[in-house]
Amino acid sequence: TSLMIDLNDPDEVKRAGIYNELIVEYALERNGTCTGEHGVGVGKMKYQEREHGGALKVMEKIKQALDPCGIFNPHKLVHNKKEESK
Question: What is the DSSP letter of 53?
Answer without folding.
Answer: T
